[in-house]
Write a structure and sequence with these properties.
14 helices; eight-stranded mixed β-sheet; disordered N terminus; single chain
Length: about 325
């Protein structure tokens, strides 16, 4: 793909094209590793999956479930839930672990908040998660658009609980926080993603301390709102680094935490360093409980918005599928 085509608005760069210009180059994987038995997605209701996909297309909406190629999509869509991705389906960042396309985004759709609220009402959702691509092209990083979405949902579905999973708003922290605090969600989520040593390779354009500061500063603006963060393991970190990261999250007033196994979207993405054993996930859970998080979910298939309502209400993480579950 030539440079002229790359900079055209609306053109999606994926795979090798997406990661071609990141600081630490990704060498293509020759063969994707075989997943262990405990990493399996459970297929549920195909008709419900089709219904939700059709509804999203009709309302010109996107889901992170689809755009990030999440293995939990069948289970979540089959159960009648989805995590909405606002502000388009093109991200201004090039994170090599993520399958969302990179490029120059289109202008914001001013009707999106209304369409989103209509969809939440049609799906009769009691809990909704709203995330977005990074929009470094916008003066506020998209904070005002988040607020419009929250306000439209509250207007149409006042009983629905709202969780937002936001980008880092790097360079726009004060503007974004002051805007979001005007109409805060029920849960404010920002993913830390990985340990600080791996940031340059895995989160080009982001900063570990900035992400921690975003979480702590929002809590200072809205002390009664739960804050949440998530990370992946299997990218090259060691256990001691994850434990230190959990300490950092607690020190920055985070309430809810999710930890899941990184799964490589394609051979052009960052490689899987290892499949983390179930016992290690359990050690993270126990460490989080000792630290005093309101809830911590640590298991291979956990993702930031996976059954987010259950985590909000204090339920334990779903158990990994057994071989019997996979074959049933």
């Amino acid at each position: 793909m030539d440079l002229k085509r790359q900079i055209e608005t609306g053109i999606k760069l994926r795979g090798a094209d997406k990661v071609a210009r990141i600081p630490i180059k990704v060498l293509p994987t020759e063969e994707l590793p075989t997943k262990p038995d405990w990493i399996r997605a459970k297929i549920t209701d195909f008709e419900e999956i089709k219904r939700i996909k059709n509804l999203l297309r009709q309302q010109k909406l996107h889901s992170v479930c689809e755009e990030a190629a999440c293995l939990n999509l069948p289970e979540c869509f089959g159960g009648g839930t989805a995590t909405f991705m606002i502000m388009g389906d093109i991200c201004t960042r090039r994170c090599p672990f993520c399958d969302v396309a990179h490029g120059r985004p289109k202008p914001l759709d001013e009707d999106e908040p209304k369409h989103l609220a209509e969809t939440v009402a049609n799906l009769k959702l009691k809990y909704v998660v709203i995330t977005s691509v990074d929009r470094d092209d916008l003066h506020d990083g998209g904070a005002a658009h988040f607020v419009k979405c929250i306000e439209e949902i509250r207007k149409r579905c006042p009983e629905t609980l709202i969780e937002i999973l936001v980008p880092d708003f790097r360079g726009r922290l004060e503007t974004a926080l002051s805007t979001l605090s005007l109409s805060p969600p029920d849960v404010f989520n920002h993913n830390i993603e990985t340990v600080p040593r791996l940031y340059k390779a895995m989160r080009p354009g982001s900063d570990y301390q900035h992400s921690l500061e975003l979480l702590k500063r929002f809590k200072a603006y809205c002390p009664d709102i739960k804050t949440k963060s998530g990370l992946m393991v299997g990218l090259g970190e060691i256990e001691a680094e994850v434990l230190a990261l959990l300490n950092d999250l607690k020190d920055h007033d985070v309430d809810l935490v999710t930890i899941g196994q990184y799964l490589q979207p394609s051979k052009s993405h960052a490689p899987i360093h290892r499949f983390v054993h179930l016992k290690e996930f359990e050690r993270y859970t126990q460490h989080g409980k000792r630290l005093g998080f309101k809830n911590i979910w640590s298991a291979p298939m956990v993702r930031s918005s996976y059954f987010a309502d259950r985590q909000y209400f204090g339920e334990p993480a779903p158990k990994p599928f057994s071989r019997e579950d996979v074959l049933s």
